[in-house]
Design brief:
Elements lengths: L3 H14 L9 H40 L6 H4 L9 H7 L2 H9 L4 H4 L2 H11 L2 H6 L7 H16 L3 H10 L3 H18 L17 H16 L1 H11 L10 H16 L5 H15 L4 H18 L12
Helix pairs in contact: 1-2, 1-12, 2-4, 2-7, 2-11, 9-11, 12-14, 13-14, 14-15, 14-16, 15-16
């Protein structure tokens, strides 16, 4: 689920909040980093449980409508296409997913059901729903397409849901694009007989990614004085007060990768930090960072001290 760029962003946020130096204990910050990364999975589960609650809300809607004192013919014999949507039913009946929700105590919608109502009402009022409900039966692929469209067009851009998630956990807003992308990827590839663990993807692609997060954090902190000196040497003509604090953090991390991670190509490191700078720092930060790193790389190449192994890593 997680990509290396988002791991770098989480490390950046943790280092930015660290106020000590390499001689201080940073156990607390390291635990926060791991918690922050793991909490992305809680966001994923929360949004998956929202889809399940939409299906349950549809069931409740039909049941209450059919029991009206003056129920119409259509209300007595309703179109159950949404209730019977195969993808939503697949999620609802997924025991492993339910167990994970219970284990992590993801029960937000029990307390904040009004957000389910907001989403459900938007679905009912949408052209997507009107078109979907023109028939009473559908194929798995049609059901899947409907759920994908609902998630991408109604759930993902919902402002009230966005505000709710921001209120519950501020870091979730940075995580939301990654989680939304992961959910849509899973929905697009789901099959009628996908295994129960299909909707429980691994947070990390492999153990190396988790190790990378911890190593990047620790090695940057443990060498920050050294990296600071390198940055100061390369910015002698700059007013240090005008250099954004976040740019210093990004430069320290980039230099750490260049020096301490032999298997990561230089171009990958530079491109990643330039993109992060564009998203999180000042408009001119990426130009500033690129200039510093470019000078540094040329020096390492000229002195043959660039610590990279393997082909294509220069």
């Amino acid at each position: 689920m997680l990509n290396r760029r988002h791991i770098r962003i989480k490390v950046m946020q943790t280092i930015y909040s660290f106020k000590g130096n390499e001689s201080d204990s940073f156990d607390k910050e390291q635990k926060f980093l791991l918690y922050s990364l793991d909490n992305i999975y809680n966001l994923y589960l929360l949004l998956m449980s929202l889809l399940i609650e939409v299906q349950k809300r549809a069931e409740d809607h039909l049941e209450k409508s059919s029991k009206k004192h003056l129920a119409t013919k259509e209300e007595k014999d309703p179109n159950k296409k949404l209730v019977n949507n195969e993808v939503l039913v697949l999620l609802k009946n997924n025991i492993l997913l339910q167990d994970e929700l219970e284990q992590r105590k993801i029960n937000n919608w029990d307390l904040d059901s009004e957000y389910i109502e907001v989403i459900f009402r938007e679905i009912l009022a949408s052209d997507l729903y009107a078109e979907y409900m023109q028939t009473k039966t559908s194929s798995f692929n049609e059901d899947k397409k409907f759920v994908i469209d609902v998630f991408s067009d109604i759930i993902a851009p919902n402002n009230k849901l966005y505000d709710y998630l921001e209120d519950k956990n501020l870091t979730w807003i940075d995580d939301l694009p990654v989680v939304n992308t992961a959910i849509l990827k899973l929905l697009r590839k789901v099959k009628p007989h996908s295994l129960p663990n299909y909707f429980l993807p691994k947070l990390y692609k492999d153990l190396e990614d988790k190790d990378f997060a911890l190593d990047l954090f620790k090695k940057t902190i443990l060498n920050q004085s050294k990296f600071k000196e390198i940055i100061q040497e390369k910015t002698q003509n700059w007013d240090t007060d005008r250099i954004a604090s976040l740019d210093i953090v990004l430069l320290k991390m980039a230099i750490c990768e260049i020096q301490k991670f032999p298997s990561i190509p230089v171009k990958v490191t530079i491109n990643e930090y330039l993109e992060i700078a564009k998203e999180y720092s000042t408009p001119k930060s990426s130009i500033f960072i690129n200039g510093i790193l470019d000078k540094l790389i040329k020096e390492y190449q000229e002195s043959d001290t660039l610590n990279k192994t393997g082909r294509g890593l220069m």
